Amino acid sequence: MLAVLAAASLAAAIPAVPAAAPAAAPVNTKTNPAMFVVSDNDTTVYIFGTFHALDGKGEWFNDQVKDAFEQSDELVLETVIPEHAGKPVIVGPAASQPLRVVAPSASFLASTRMAINAGKAQGMQVGNGADMVLRHAADAEGKPVEGLETLESQINMFATMKPTPATTTATAKDSTLNLSKSMADMQSAWKRGDQSVFVHMLSYLENSSPDTYRVMFTERNGRWADWIRARMQTPGTVFVAVGAGHLAGKDSVLVQLGERGIYSTRVN
């Protein structure tokens, strides 16, 4: 289920035929994804931008990222999906509530299949994704893990989302190739900590599908900013890890935190 959600998230966030990406940065073997921090006298919240599926090449979980993770009392992901006997289980505030999920829409299923195929073409797997690596590290250390959203809310969001309007008559094969290249470009940008590629993608998505952009980014980023603001009232150190696209652009979590009087600093 986690693989399906991650793939659907990528597919929904990336137009099938994106506008031309900015010129690629010079080749750099250093892997240094962007991380930010907000703090007050007794609370520190690290905010790390993840990539949900990676090719496993390059070591990113080290230096400042590893140090921040080790200093943190808990890990907070977009969604926590523990598996017991092969069945996903919700934990946290919604654990006592039954899971009510609407049937996936045709566009959701199509986007999921396309994203999975595009990712595989680049050797990208959810098992190598930053979210999974962090989750395994937290489990190994006995570090508490919390989710900003429930599994139910994420599935319902993807299943009911309006499809992004088609802008070309390209074949399914062409669309998959375009998506595959876009995912590879964004993975490369993520590894070098380049936020500009995500800003470009978000701008294109907002112009081509305002509703999708609003639901996936503006509204969710606002809820997550509210969560961080509330968490700042409790002493401690927290490591928050959400998709890198949520930390870029004019409606990012960081911008919305600033609008709430909480200002972030880039760590690396």
From TrEMBL:
<keyword id="KW-0732">Signal</keyword>
<dbReference type="InterPro" id="IPR002816">
    <property type="entry name" value="TraB/PrgY/GumN_fam"/>
</dbReference>
<dbReference type="InterPro" id="IPR047111">
    <property type="entry name" value="YbaP-like"/>
</dbReference>
<dbReference type="Pfam" id="PF01963">
    <property type="entry name" value="TraB_PrgY_gumN"/>
</dbReference>
<protein>
    <submittedName>
        <fullName>TraB/GumN family protein</fullName>
    </submittedName>
</protein>
<feature type="signal peptide">
    <location>
        <begin position="1"/>
        <end position="19"/>
    </location>
</feature>
